[in-house]
Input
Amino acid sequence: MKHQPKIEIGVCGWGDHDELYMHGVRSQDKLSVYASHFPIVELDSSFYAILPQKNYAKWVKDTPDAFRFIVKPHQAMTGHQRQIERDERLTIFNQFSESISPLIEAGKLETLLFQFPPWFDCKRENVQYVKYCVEYFNAFTVSVEFRHQSWFEPAYYDKTLAFIKEIGAVHVICDEPQAGSGSVPIVPEVTHEKLSLVRFHGRNISGWRDAGGRANWRDVRYLYHYSEEELQEWKPRLIQVSEQTEKVCVLFNNNSGGDAAGNAKRMMELLGVDPDGLNPRQLELF
Output
């Protein structure tokens, strides 16, 4: 039996990675095929809507027992919708919690990924809000991703990491364009003894800065292919992170040009990751 890897690698979403699917695979069957390639996936459709439980129940059935989901809470819960009353937000917290219950009952929720918006800066009220989010979901592992540079300025760098550790959350390590205050540097630090989460957003600096006002902003922002050199640069870093926690989940979010799955597969090769417990692989022609 193969050794269960400490590092697990996947991508964000399962619908956009055409290279994984033979011609004719229906959209409703893609997750099952995806789960023959990767043991984890980031679910971001939950960020845009409170999904019905039946969706999660189907995804549970489509994936093997060892498969895990990294789930993004609804945007009203992460501060992306600024004009929302506290009572309404609490209602959404409750609705979201109920909606994901099939994942929880099946033991397939790896972590909740709270990705806060670029304007969510390091100030007291935001610190308190992060604490509230983690405490509300204290029965689960919560991961925290900041996107405003202030959290990791020299004056707050150590305090930010200490705070995340103190509230029992996972610090999300990011590789992303260094494009001003709305981006964070690589901070390869571990705050949780059981999990570390690493997300690769690409390094498209111009797309990161300018994508916000465009209708197709996602297509612009995450258009990037990691070179062999850039992936090799991360190999020792990921190994070092894995020595400080029980599991490392690595997610590639550079989906726009169809690069995420290929980069993820190459990273698996570089690290010698060959996961057990996947769905049976389709007959592949090439």
Observations:
- Residues 7-271 form a domain with the TIM Barrel fold (CATH 3.20.20.410).
- The chain has a mean pLDDT of 91.
- The beta strands are 7-12, 40-43, 68-71, 109-115, 142-145, 170-175, 195-200, 247-252.
- The first strand starts at residue 7 and ends at 12.
